Amino acid sequence: MRLTIRTDGGSRGNPGSAGAGVVLEDRDDGDKRLFAGGFYLGEATSNVAEYAAVLRALELAEQLGGTQLEIYCDSELVVKQINGQYRVKNANLKKLHQQVAARLGRFDRVTVRHVYRSDNTEADALVNQTIDAGRDVGGMTPKRETNTKQDLSARPNTEDAETPQAIWTAVDLISQANFSSAGPCRVVLGQQSGLKSELICLQLGQRLHIKPKWSQATITVLRGCGMITAGIEKKAIAAGSWLHLGPVKAVDLTPDEGEQLVVIITGQV
User: Fold this and answer.
1) Which residue of 20, 43, 112, 220 is 20 to 30 Å from 184, comparing CA positions?
2) Which domains are seen in the chain, by residue range?
């Protein structure tokens, strides 16, 4: 399968809140859209986000059965590093570059080309959408309905009908848990009535720095063990731990050596 891929990554603050945008199309089926989505990366630099976008694209391409890839990216630095025209000096980028190189070898043919941002608007827009949302956005393109006829007479009168209220929101935490080599993964589970819940996943060697906007919060540790720093206080945490935090200026989470750390933070915003 021949795929056309467009990627973009960005960070507000550099480092700051970061996201990656990916668009995949099937060239063998009239450029049929297969995927268009953004991935929230937590805190990262723009260059790390650009590499993360390429890595996510390669992972998706492999899952979809791609064999020949044309990748378009608007980071000239990342394109030239992947193509061997520039050396990779930054230690963090070296690791990501090695991961990209390893994945490239799984395809029959891959070309990586630089394009200007004006020619990469959709991937760029996905980056901004996911940073604004603070979570992953988009995804696999849904199948089109084959029956487009609608019985308008059977539709309810929305002006008179009562809007149903949800009793609860159920989330499968196992399916939501996600780890990225590019940085901490944060998934918004829900936000209502002044409360916001996030699922946070950290790999070995990653650190999440949060500048809270909540007046108080609870932290529940689902997996692994590590350290939390809130203000000037530090505390070891492990699976099964539950903590209550008051207003603080900054919170840091780090997993212990050899551990993955998964926590839920619910804050009063």
Assistant:
1) 112
2) 2-140 (3.30.420.10), 173-268 (2.60.120.10)
pLDDT score recorded for residue 167? 46
| Residue type, position 242, single letter | W
* Torsion angle defined by CA atoms of residues 122, 125, 130 and 133, in that order, rounded to the nearest 10 degrees: -130
Task: Enter the pTM of the model.
Answer: 0.56
**Predicted confidence (pLDDT) per residue in 148-205, tens digit:** 333 433 333 333 333 334 445 566 676 667 777 777 887 777 666 677 788 888 988 8
Burial of 155 (0-12, 13-18, 19+ CB in 10 A): exposed
Hey, what are 93's tokens?
Answer: 């980028």
Tokens of 72: 């378009």
Of residues 38 and 181, more confidence is placed in: 38
Query: What does the longest C-alpha to C-alpha distance in the chain come to?
Result: 66
